[in-house]
């Protein structure tokens, strides 16, 4: 089967949940104004309406472990040091009046619990497969619940490594035992979503944690098929030749592969631990309206349906997932992907469905000098929550990520708390 060419993508970058730069948003024009003055919020000194937070509103933060982004602060800390740092993050969530922590427990096809499927995570000791001397996931669940926090176990289904050298993986790694499962692409290694045995394996590996621990939710981020890399092809020719005959084209086959993973995982979660939620946090643009009339009024260089082969809108409309957290990591007024246009689009997408909508917020951009002017304003993030409150479908917000929740370089998180989280968080269950 011949290779399928990939179209070129603009050079502007978007940042995914892992905190790593991925090819992303095509910026057609810079933000005009850039200070949120056109958002109807009344200017920099405006304060949100004094509304009581809805019962069950979700207030969350991500804790990323890939490449030691948030935790542990570096590999090789003692068990006691790791535990202390983890509890500090949980305490910070309580201090910020949050009620949920989304904890990354399978960052690169390795595990933060004793798994029969995959090795101990490299981010813990610096050596993949080396036991850390304690139970990070079990401790996180117990200590989060003791503080009134939900613990959502965050898994990445397909990413194997942030390099392309299989020999750097521990010898017992499934990717070394099954090299035919693995595709190098864009400087990384991925499991091939087109192989049925991979689909079964990654479910088994993730659900092992759900069987063993009383996690409140299974959570996936935005990585399905990898973000496009100009000039490179994701080589799944052999799998497509074997399994793709019933589909109109390779793109339809790939979307079906991801649909199958979502639908099967949802069903298995209900059997393994009834009441556990299933949520997904995709890139914020399903499709541009110029591509599909049902899409958003955006000009994004990545569209999840077309480029990541993830039909996120379908999962919502079909009720396959319990919640969705689109990563709306752009400021109000951003030309290519305006927060103030995407929130209403997602609100409409979930309307009438059983899927709840939370919004992923780019706290990491606040005060970053590399970001547009709007992100230098301490009030930008608070304005997001003010805007979203006019859309009852929005049931909460999740902030990326724990490091910034603690450091809060310009006080943007403190402003959110002062404006919107005046009271301690109610339990998120039911949100």
Question: Could you list some keywords that capture this structure?
Answer:
single chain, globular, 8-stranded parallel barrel, alpha/beta, 431 residues, disordered N terminus
Explained architecture:
The protein has 431 residues and is an alpha/beta fold. 30% of the residues lie in helices and 13% in strands. It is built from 13 helices and 13 strands. The chain has helices at 79-95, 122-125, 136-146, 174-177, 196-212, 237-243, 250-272, 304-308, 312-317, 339-350, 380-388, 402-407, 412-420, and strands at 13-15, 21-23, 58-63, 100-106, 150-155, 159-161, 182-185, 188-191, 217-220, 277-280, 323-324, 356-361, 394-399. The strands form three sheets. The chain has an eight-stranded parallel β-barrel, surrounded by six helices. It has a three-stranded antiparallel β-sheet with strand order 6-8-7, with no helix packed on it. Strand 1 (13-15) and strand 2 form a beta hairpin. Helix 1 (79-95) packs parallel to helix 3, helix 5 (196-212) packs parallel to helix 7 (250-272) and helix 11 runs parallel beside helix 13 (412-420). It is globular. Mean pLDDT is 89; it is low at 1-53.
Give a nutshell description of this structure.
With 431 residues, this protein is of the alpha/beta class. The chain contains 13 helices and 13 strands.
């Amino acid at each position: 089967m011949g290779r399928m060419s990939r179209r070129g993508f603009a050079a502007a970058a978007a940042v995914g949940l892992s905190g790593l730069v991925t090819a992303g948003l095509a910026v057609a024009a810079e933000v005009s104004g850039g200070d949120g003055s056109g958002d109807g919020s009344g200017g920099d000194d405006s304060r949100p309406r004094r509304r009581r937070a809805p019962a069950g509103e979700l207030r969350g933060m991500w804790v990323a472990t890939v490449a030691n982004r948030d935790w542990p602060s570096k590999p090789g800390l003692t068990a006691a040091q790791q535990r202390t740092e983890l509890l500090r993050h949980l305490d910070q969530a309580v201090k910020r009046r949050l009620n949920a922590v989304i904890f990354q427990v399978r960052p690169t096809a390795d595990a933060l619990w004793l798994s029969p499927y995959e090795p101990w995570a490299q981010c813990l000791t610096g050596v993949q497969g080396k036991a850390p001397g304690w139970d990070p996931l079990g401790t996180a669940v117990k200590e989060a619940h003791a503080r009134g926090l939900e613990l959502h176990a965050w898994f990445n289904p397909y990413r194997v490594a942030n390099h392309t050298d299989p020999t750097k993986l521990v010898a017992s790694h499934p990717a070394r035992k099954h090299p035919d499962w693995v595709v190098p692409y864009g400087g990384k290694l991925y499991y091939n979503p087109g192989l049925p045995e991979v689909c079964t394996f990654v479910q088994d590996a993730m659900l092992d944690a759900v069987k063993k621990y009383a996690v409140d939710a299974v959570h996936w981020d935005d990585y399905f098929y990898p973000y496009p890399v100009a000039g490179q092809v994701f080589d799944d020719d052999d799998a497509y030749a074997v399994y793709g005959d019933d589909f109109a084209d390779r793109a339809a086959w790939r979307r079906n592969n991801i649909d199958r993973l979502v639908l099967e995982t949802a069903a298995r979660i209900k059997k393994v631990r009834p009441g556990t939620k299933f949520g997904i946090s995709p890139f914020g643009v399903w499709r541009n309206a110029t591509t599909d009339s049902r899409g958003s009024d955006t000009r994004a260089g990545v569209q999840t349906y077309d480029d990541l082969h993830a039909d996120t809108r379908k999962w919502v409309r079909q009720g396959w997932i319990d919640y969705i957290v689109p990563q709306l990591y752009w400021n109000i007024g951003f030309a290519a992907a305006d927060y103030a246009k995407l929130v209403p689009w997602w609100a409409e997408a979930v309307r009438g469905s059983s899927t709840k909508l939370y919004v992923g917020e780019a706290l990491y951009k606040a005060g970053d000098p590399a970001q547009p002017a709007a992100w230098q304003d301490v009030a930008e993030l608070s304005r997001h929550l003010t805007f979203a409150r006019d859309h009852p479908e929005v049931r909460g917000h999740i902030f990326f990520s724990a490091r910034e929740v603690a450091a809060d370089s310009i006080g943007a998180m403190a402003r959110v708390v002062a404006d919107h989280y005046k009271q301690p968080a109610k339990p998120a269950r039911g949100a």
